[in-house]
Amino acid sequence: MMDTLFYLSETLCCLWYIIPGILIVGVTYDFVRYKTLTRVSLKDKHVVVTGGSSGIGKSFACEAARKGANVTLVARDKDKLRASEVEVKKCCIYASQRVFSCSVDISGPYERVEDSFVDIEKDGGPIFMLMNCAGAAVCGVLEDTSSSDVRKMLELNCLGSIQTTRATIEGMKSRGEGHIIFTSSQAGFVGIYGFCPYSASKFALRGFAEALYMEVKNSGLKVTVAFPPDVDTPGFAEEEKSKPKETRLICQSGGLYQPDEVARKILNDALAGYFTSTLGIDGFMLTTLNAGMSPDYSFLRLFAQVFLAGPFRIIAVCYRLSFDRIIKKCREERNKSKKAE
């Protein structure tokens, strides 16, 4: 009996020193690897950005240009595209860099999208990185959201990214390299009041990205899906116009980020080979809680998912209860207002 207890105490003592050692080595490896990969130059690489005329898309294009990439901006508004093209050119670091723009509705007929991407590759060369950033949000409870707005969000946020990816994937596979990035949202992790169709479109992107990862991994391609928080963009300003009070109160707890900060993080996470890209403590918690079977193999992230999922679940329940209280309070205020009338 004493021998068994002695053996167990020795084992526990060994683990006391081994586990922290493994953790330190793993975290150090992840940190050094991340810093090394994010310093990689994109010189002579062709980066295509949908939704590149404003917001995160334009900021991402500027970040890619600062790393030496040739950039093509894709959007519908030709005037905004020309203005963004000028801004992105100012970010170029080599005289040989080129910046192009292409006006096309990526949620339109696939043949038109495919033809546009053929022209894009003729002008800028083979596509190395596709950043799917085009999207829109119309806020409001479901019964107040028009059918046209529901269709617009599903087609632009989800179908548009599928179409551009389909138009790009074959060439990437034949070359054995490429990176495809999808811009989801934290509303793609958790359904939020007033965001029913929007959340549906952003949840769908994650499923598509996970399936695509399995299809392309052995062809040398990488896939990243970003889940940014609220970002100070023209799109955010537009959605604020129709945002219910409940949605505004729930979302304000996450803060408001700048597009340059978000774009830089997405590009760095993509270059580091991460499947998911998030920002802030809320983003980290949501990614950890929603890891599921996602192909994120970073040591630090895996460690967090194993050991922090339980505590984060408790915090998430507290968040959810606070959201329920906000919704209940707003409803009571509306009922009082109706009675007063």
Automatic annotation (TrEMBL):
The keyword Kinase does not apply. The chain crosses the membrane at residues 6-29, 271-293, 299-319. One of its GO terms (biological process) is sphingolipid biosynthetic process. Keywords: Endoplasmic reticulum, Lipid metabolism, Membrane, NADP, Oxidoreductase, Sphingolipid metabolism, Transmembrane, Transmembrane helix. Its EC number is 1.1.1.102. GO terms for cellular component: endoplasmic reticulum membrane. It is found in: Endoplasmic reticulum. It is an enzyme of class 1 (oxidoreductase). It catalyses: sphinganine + NADP(+) = 3-oxosphinganine + NADPH + H(+). One of its GO terms (molecular function) is 3-dehydrosphinganine reductase activity. Pfam families: adh_short. The keyword Transport does not apply. Pathway: Lipid metabolism; sphingolipid metabolism; Sphingolipid metabolism. Catalyzes the reduction of 3'-oxosphinganine (3-ketodihydrosphingosine/KDS) to sphinganine (dihydrosphingosine/DHS), the second step of de novo sphingolipid biosynthesis. Belongs to the short-chain dehydrogenases/reductases (SDR) family. This is 3-dehydrosphinganine reductase. It comes from Lygus hesperus. The gene is KDSR.
